[in-house]
Write a structure and sequence with these properties.
Length: 216
C-alpha cells in the first residue's frame, strides 16, 4: 500500500492529489493512505445546510479561512494545524463487509490510536466518528465514494485549538463538545508522534503494510 505524508497542505491541492490516487487505484489497484494537516478550512459535506455556518462564508474568507462544499458524507466540519487528517484511497465495494465494515475498521484504527494514550474512545450508534465517555467528540469521519473507491476520510484532534469550530455547527449537532488527545492527556502531544502510532494501528487493523513512502 502506498503512503503519502504531505505535511501542511491546503485542501484544494489535497483533493487534486486524492483524484490522482483514485485514478491510479483504478488503473493498477494500488491503494494509498494520505496523511497530512490542513490550514484553517471549513468543509461542507453533501448534506450540509446554510444554517451549519454561524458566520457568512464571505466573512470567513476575509479572515483567510477557506469554505468549501465537497462531495463527502456528513455536514460541516473544520480542519486546522494540529489536527491529523487521513484520506484512505481504497477499494470499498467488493471488500469483505462492504462500506459498513470499512467505516467500522476506520473507527477501530482511531480507537486503537487513542488507547495508546490511555484514552477510551467509543462509537455512537448511527453516527460516524469517535467520542469519549464524557460525551466529547475527538475524531470525525466523512467519506466520499467514486466507482466503489473511497476518498476523503478521517480527522483526529491532536493538539489543535477549537476556535474555528465556533464558526459552525459541527456535524449538525448544536450541543457538540470537542476535545483532543493533548487535552485529554494533560500534556502536549504532537501530530508527528500520533501519526506514527496511527500508521502502526492502521497496518494492524487493515492487515496491510506500506511499501512506498513519499514525502511532499
Amino acid at each position: 500500500m502506498n503512503l503519502l505524508e504531505l505535511g501542511l497542505l491546503d485542501f484544494s491541492n489535497s483533493l487534486a492529489i486524492q483524484e490522482r490516487c483514485l485514478k491510479k487505484l483504478e488503473e493498477d489497484r494500488q491503494e494509498t493512505l494520505i496523511i497530512l494537516e490542513h490550514p484553517k478550512t471549513i468543509t461542507l459535506g453533501r448534506n450540509s445546510q446554510d444554517s451549519d455556518l454561524k458566520q457568512s462564508a464571505l466573512s470567513l474568507k476575509e479572515n483567510n479561512i477557506e469554505v468549501l462544499k465537497i462531495k463527502r458524507g456528513g455536514r460541516a466540519t473544520c480542519h486546522m494545524p494540529g489536527q491529523l487528517v487521513i484520506y484512505p484511497i481504497m477499494k470499498v465495494i467488493g471488500r469483505s463487509g462492504g462500506l459498513k465494515q470499512f467505516v467500522y475498521d476506520l473507527e477501530e484504527v482511531l480507537i486503537e490510536t487513542l488507547k495508546h494514550y490511555n484514552i477510551q474512545g467509543k462509537r455512537k450508534q448511527n453516527s460516524a466518528g469517535i467520542w469519549l465517555e464524557n460525551g466529547k467528540k475527538i475524531a470525525f469521519i466523512g467519506l466520499g465514494l467514486k466507482k466503489g473507491l473511497s476518498y476523503h476520510g478521517c480527522s483526529l484532534n491532536v493538539e489543535n485549538s477549537f476556535e474555528l469550530f465556533e464558526a459552525i455547527i459541527p456535524c449538525a449537532d448544536p450541543n457538540a463538545k470537542l476535545t483532543s488527545i493533548s487535552y485529554e492527556a494533560g500534556k502536549n502531544i504532537s501530530v508527528d508522534e500520533v501519526k506514527e502510532v496511527y500508521k502502526a494501528k492502521f497496518n494492524t487493523v487493515f492487515k496491510t503494510h506500506f511499501n512506498i513512502t513519499k514525502n511532499k
